[in-house]
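Q: How would the structure tokens look for this protein?
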Amino acid sequence: MGNADTKLHFRKAVIQLTTKTQPVEATDNVFWDQFWAECSIAVQDVFALVPAAEIRAVREESPSNLATLCYKAVERLVQCANSGCPSEKERQIVLNCTRLLTRILPYIFEDADWRGFFWSTIPGADENEARPLAESLLLTIADLLFCPDFTVQSHKKNNPDASEEMRSIDSCEYIWEAGVGFAQSPPLNYIHDLNRTELLKLLLTCFSEAMYLSPLSDSQVLNPWVSFFCSAENRHALPLFTSLLNVVCSYDPVGYGIPYNHLLFSDYREQLVEQALQVLIVTLEHETGSAVTGPDNLFVNYLSRIHREEDLSFVLRGFAQLLNNPLIQTYLPRSTKKIHFHQELLILFWKCCDFNKKFLFFVLKSSDVLEMLVPILFYLNDARADQSRVGLMHIGVFILLLLSGERNFGVRLNKPYTLRVPMDISVFTGTHADLLIVIFHKIITCGHQRLHPLFDCLLTIIVNISPYLKSLSMVAANKLLHLLEAFSMPWYLLSAPQNHNLVFFLLEVFNNIIQYQFDGNFNLVYAIIRKRNVFHQLANLPTDEGSIQKTLQKKKKKSGISRLNSTDVESMESSRPAAPAEPGTLKATLEATPGIDKITEKSQVSEDGTMIALPRSSSPATPPHRGAINGASDTESNSERDHEVQQIPRCSHSVYFSAFSLFHPMLSWKSRLPLQTIMRLLQVLVPQVEKICIDKGLTDESEILRFLQHGTLVGLLPVPHPILIRKYQANSGTAMWFRTYMWGVIYLRNVDPPIWYDTDIRLFEIQRI
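A: Here is the predicted structure in token form.
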């Protein structure tokens, strides 16, 4: 009954505010205290009892009252923080003000005329001493996140003066969890975890002003909320960064391993971990360049300086444990807790690798890099058919592209793959490199059509690792040949101006393996011999208009390439196929990603293993991005512009000829196809294999493989070409993509309460599938 009276009392206060036509004085504490001092209102109730329409009505019709409400709520938070929240009533006031501001702030941000409100000083205050309201709010939130007996355990017993403790507190002694730079693990206190979560939710809402600016806005302008909070003005910056990172990396969702324990007990730490993770990835958004002005981002600075081996190991183990959580197999279905914040984890991992090169090299030199690889491949395979998870596909591929630019990654992939993670892929016995190739093949041939702009990235990753792959399995070798067969179809090559680059990438893969890893790759050599017609057809592609016309007329009579063309029905690791999005699923649109030539820089590997950056050039294998031509943005509809290898659109040949001059450059790139090494291999080995088969009457594949295993091409191949690695390079295009993706994830993951639902977001669109 009491709870119903409380909600009724609060609702009456809201109605009074929305119906008042005259400004209410800031000194009328009796009126304003109705919103936070006289009752305890759950955050869900605040969202239900303060409707969006009424907030907008007050904003338009009684702007002074909305301004005063915000000012008074921040004022009460400051007062409580200064006093140290010694009483239960003050702690409740903090939570009520926090929930109310979380509800109101998005409606401040959606109106351009109101965005400057929090950055103005209070009328009548001393201009030299008064802080803008935003700064007061941010510093108060930081203070409250280290408030003894409210969000951290008090170190002083029976301290009568909580305000003195707040002023003199060294928050580095109150870091929330052991880990980087802090050895003591404080006792768990679920009340503290809940209070921290609510404050972090408000902090994230403050940062979310970025969602209300269009992606066309000046990307060099820093988010003022993040910029101030992560500056030296915030005395808690270091302990808070450390607390957030340690809480995330030390979290163990399985706990003591008791089956179904997550059904018996509420895990308040999980809510805190999710909010900490989201705050971390937002605060670590950092623009670089001479045009950027503003204070140093201390969070980025602290992350970049982590260097102790034990700290790097702690962070990497935390990532690996959490990302592998959905892969944990048990005999009891659903007996272990599954986390759902893997997208935020991947963003944070990306930022760690980007800002801290010591961490990146630690990952690459450690065998734990494979503990990261397997879950990323699992997520890629699982999400490939779901258009609501196109962003997840991109972040996973970008991480692998970043890692593939380093030699150690390719070398590590030679480790045998012995796990049996349930994925609907071909059964094989081989290495982690085989797993990567098999899954990439599945993405290309059976993925959603919106993934077509990623094909360049997927094949670039395989090119980067190919010089180091000691022994591909027969399954992986056949997958690579199937991709070449599909991409080299004349009508596919002619269906878009840049499609031929996929063929260039695959030929580069084969050349790298033949020249640098021939001895162990007899499976691939055998697959090349079996599919030698594909290479002969490439060498004899038509270049005159008449021959092209005949080719396209043949195409007119054919249907599109089937999704599993030239592959047998395969036995699968799991019967659970990748599923498309459920109807009604919400997704956030994404910015188009730049082409592979814009996000990578070519480096040549010298004899001593060092890399030498090469000057940029318009190489035939790195042309302007097809994504921009095809409309790669996720805001586009599923149109016929999306050319796919699995289902190439059937077009009248006259369409092609109306644009014949556009595709006629086949004349120029065909002569640059790097076929010499492969043709020489075929020239030497095909007669030998045919002779053995005739002389010995061989029909058994294993005998031929044994012969190839002991064969050699020393002195018979052309001089080995230099190894070229395409390393990821940060650029403004990917920075904007990451911003829209990150905020899209945060928007969709915060549904209880739905902080930004039904507000005028401009950074992206929310679409229902």
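DSSP finds 36 helices and five strands in the chain.

Residues 367-544+600-613+665-730 form one domain.

Upvote if useful.
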